[in-house]
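Sample pair:
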Amino acid sequence: MAAERGVRRLLSTSSFWLYCLLLLGRRAPGAAAARSGSSPQSPGASIRTFTPFYFLVEPVDTLSVRGSSVILNCSAYSEPSPKIEWKKDGTFLNLVSDDRRQLLPDGSLFISNVVHSKHNKPDEGYYQCVATVESLGTIVSRTAKLTVAGLPRFTSQPEPSSVYAGNNAILNCEVNADLVPFVRWEQNRQPLLLDDRVIKLPSGMLVISNATEGDGGLYRCIVESGGPPKYSDEVELKVLPDPEVTSDLVFLKQPSPLVRVIGQDVVLPCVASGLPTPTIKWMKNEEVLDTESSERLVLLAGGSLEISDVTEDDAGTYFCIADNGNETIEAQAEFTVQAQPEFLKQPTNIYAHESMDIVFECEVTGKPTPTVKWVKNGDMVIPSDYFKIVKEHNLQVLGLVKSDEGFYQCIAENDVGNAQAGAQLIILEHDVAIPTLPPTSLTSATTDHLAPATTGPLPSAPRDVVASLVSTRFIKLTWRTPASDPHGDNLTYSVFYTKEGIARERVENTSRPGEMQVTIQNLMPATVYIFRVMAQNKHGSGESSAPLRVETQPEVQLPGPAPNLRAYAASPTSITVTWETPVSGNGEIQNYKLYYMEKGTDKEQDVDVSSLSYTINGLKKYTEYSFRVVAYNKHGPGVSTPDVAVRTLSDVPSAAPQNLSLEVRNSKSIMIHWQPPAPATQNGQITGYKIRYRKASRKSDVTETLVSGTQLSQLIEGLDRGTEYNFRVAALTINGTGPATDWLSAETFESDLDETRVPEVPSSLHVRPLVTSIVVSWTPPENQNIVVRGYAIGYGIGSPHAQTIKVDYKQRYYTIENLDPSSHYVITLKAFNNVGEGIPLYESAVTRPHTVPDPTPMMPPVGVQASILSHDTIRITWADNSLPKHQKITDSRYYTVRWKTNIPANTKYKNANATTLSYLVTGLKPNTLYEFSVMVTKGRRSSTWSMTAHGTTFELVPTSPPKDVTVVSKEGKPKTIIVNWQPPSEANGKITGYIIYYSTDVNAEIHDWVIEPVVGNRLTHQIQELTLDTPYYFKIQARNSKGMGPMSEAVQFRTPKADSSDKMPNDQASGSGGKGSRLPDLGSDYKPPMSGSNSPHGSPTSPLDSNMLLVIIVSVGVITIVVVVIIAVFCTRRTTSHQKKKRAACKSVNGSHKYKGNSKDVKPPDLWIHHERLELKPIDKSPDPNPIMTDTPIPRNSQDITPVDNSMDSNIHQRRNSYRGHESEDSMSTLAGRRGMRPKMMMPFDSQPPQQSVRNTPSTDTMPASSSQTCCTDHQDPEGATSSSYLASSQEEDSGQSLPTAHVRPSHPLKSFAVPAIPPPGPPTYDPALPSTPLLSQQALNHHIHSVKTASIGTLGRSRPPMPVVVPSAPEVQETTRMLEDSESSYEPDELTKEMAHLEGLMKDLNAITTA
């Protein structure tokens, strides 16, 4: 309460003082106006002063971990106090409604519980503090990056290793760069203590130097970044006793290129291992580093170099040299030092008047070179006609207006960081004099405004202002003196001008008093400008002239030159060029052409550029180039910019010095000569050469000598007598050492030989002529006591004096190149030393004649053909016209076959070689179009590619299941669900249909699941009449012409709970079969539920009913089988001539059976229906190329069955009567209502809509054979549709067409001898053994697509015109017998004996069931 009273007292006091201030403001408006600078200034009144407004603290880059808290500091100074806001990634943060981010009183941003995950990183980003003072302006801080350490990931882990005692060892542990500070090591599950001998490198690597037995053990590294720690693999480090033998010197860790910022610390890793233990020393740019006396350079354990407080001078190439007395190895790395942007010159506060031009100056430095942008009151300044960036970084504002007041900030940034500096602009009224001398930030055009004014008469308006010269880009104005001052010798004039329709006015002053003309430059063509002129005398500015409207001349519609063309070297091989959009664009700039040329050449190259910058790569190192830019619009090229020259950066030489030679002076000295690297490979100014030499017997003992860049020889003295030495030379630039020459060897003399006379003649000379060269070999002079410095070889046609070549004294052969064929050459050989040349030895030779190669080009192969063999194999064959007629390859030619597919479009060719005229391409994708071409190669000659051949691989069964299976309930119909899915990723062919499996038991065998076939490539399906409040599981498999693919994962869906409005109609429908409906026959494989359990649809069944139903079904099945067996035996034994004649008559009706495969070639299917799964044994295949798989929703009650169309109404009643004659309608309806899963079925289907003739045959439970038809009876339907009773379609689906369905009646486990209708004529083919899949329609690998006959009642759709529906009556038993005989469906006695034995076994099982 006391605090509340204090607040109220403070508020009342504040209100009182505010009221007093308002009264004072009303009484003294002049003073307030003077303070604000918004009203005329009275003599002696003060003007507005610059307000201190700057940041005390700015945010810095911060690294955090997930779940921790972060504070980004920010504090700004101003009177009054500024309002602080924050931006993240350029967008203001709404901190009022943010639970985790809050603004602290000093302006800092506090983030609690940092959120960071793989896909959600709301806190990571760039933050900027924004300070605002009302009526004054806004300033922004530097941007700070908040980095959140990601989840720990090991890029490399420690590996088991061993180390000899006293030697060095390393264990890797590399993690993300932001997690390195959180890495620590454990030894034997205990924290590892680091010291001078055991260190952790910044990369996380563990270095153990001078290993002891105590260093052995199990090691692992741990990353602790706020969450649970992450452990690496645990590995063992074994410490072995010193073997006291030498081992090779190798680097365990070499230095790698590093980049650091000035002021940071850096560690250059370098660890070597070998016996004896090596010592490490470091060199920088050929200078040995003294790590012992330096405070900033420290040699760490193992040999790594640590540099503290990095400066720009630390940049360079560092060499790590390991030496163990036996050998020396070295490694090098480049260390680059970067610097954050720093201001060399900051913008300063400016007073100005309206219409003036001002410049804010800003000069920055940094590495890499910073980029500069300007911000006004927190908003980016976009360059325009009035805001320009001049002299790279300065901001020029033309034609000031009042709204230009505020705070301007220069923001410099590079890869390392960013910085900002600001200044304030105050615009005074014209009658208020600027209080100081003209600052450097005001342009010369406006300085005349700054003279202090005195009281007195002002001049009147200048007279007769006219535009005496009007051009496209400038206007010359002239006028007469004002009427108030006819002489006007002391008057100066200001010309104010602006574009028509723009309020921003610019000013141009006359250069001297009395001048009455001015030329306004840098105008736009075809643009209207408004001009007015004012005269000034010592008292101030007078009246303005009347506005003058002038339009500049239109210009040829071509762009002007691109301003601010700049080029800078980005690397030794690249230069970046930038420019700005031309001021006079004259229409939309379409593109730019950048021209560049190497200095000293006359070949100019160009490149098309669509942006305002371009980096040219692939340039020569340390080479000067000139650049210019031309803008293009729709009319063509514009005005070119002036050339800008820049040189690429220097680099280490890319080639070794040339012509290295050794001259043995005596027994203790050797003279080395060389030439600089080729100019194109020097890559900079050669600053010196490094000479390294060693004894050939001791390769590790290397001596180095440095000489200046102008020296091209060096005498090496103090060598041993009779010793062979190796020498090599490398060139140096300021960037480092280039590659060295190959080792060149020379041997000092055993004793100082005689060099007071010339050598004697060589002891022998031999020549071997070739076509364009001669190989010369020789032996030295016999007198070995005279010094031989080398040999001189002279040669020429007819004379040996045309050419002379000198070789080393050790050389014993030489090949003279570039000679003419069939020419006579004379060759001479002389030994020489410093005294002169000895006696020559002569020889002659004739070069061989030139053989002309076969000019016949290779012809490409022809007749390329692609033969498809399988889904992944195509055979490519071709012919070669360059071979003899028998096409036999007798030479070494070979063929290259290439192939690709156009999907995706950027697929690359694959190639293979073949030595025959065919090639088998394997590993192709199924159902994919490939193109093939062939070329032939013989020796060095190759043909062009042949014409292409194309081939599409065969389809393959889908190899992936349908995706994204979802099940939803249909709105308003709780018993109906909708299944949706997506095609499989690997369809391997055209999808012709899907099978939906569903069950209430996810663990049930798949053959106990209910199936729903879906026609074609539809991706949705409805299933009706499911049980309410019941969980269902759904799977889907796809089918193409090759068969079924894998099933999808089971998806669970629970149907909604029942409501009162749905229950009664459903119960009534399940209790009785509706009128005109046919109920599905459950058959003998129906298994009633166990006692006390509910059926799948929830109908309770008593144990007594279940047993009685089982006995009835089994009995009916046994009687049916007995009748079938008796009829079959009777058929096999009745073979009279009467039946033979009748069969012959049938054959004649169907035409020639020998070639068309009619009734004689057709055998009835051996159709086996199990109680567990439905399976077809080999049956006939129809050669119909377009089978149709019909959509077969199984009816669940009487309301689901509807006729095909209205044209079949007349036949429906007949079907019903024939059906009711064999089955009880009521009993079947009850069974159908109780059965939770529909009977299994096998249905072929296709994506084509079926149009077929349907033949109806009555049910034949008591006479199974009656469902067959003779060939004579079936000749009206040449395609032989299988018997069908009904075509049902789902009333809930709106597919736009009537999809025929088939009802499948399960039968007894015994074999069913149903005979299918006769297939159409064609060659008899047979399906292979079919797998026991729920859908048994599998296609053979041949080119024909075969329809599959279905078990029990089915409908086989064909793509053909509709035919009339014929519904014959059921034939008598005698007719049925004849039908079986005519179809030649008989069984042998042995087969019947087996069936009878099987029947007896079933009868025993039946007796056991009934007695139980």
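Residues 1-45, 442-453, 1060-1104, 1135-1387 have pLDDT under 50 and may be disordered.
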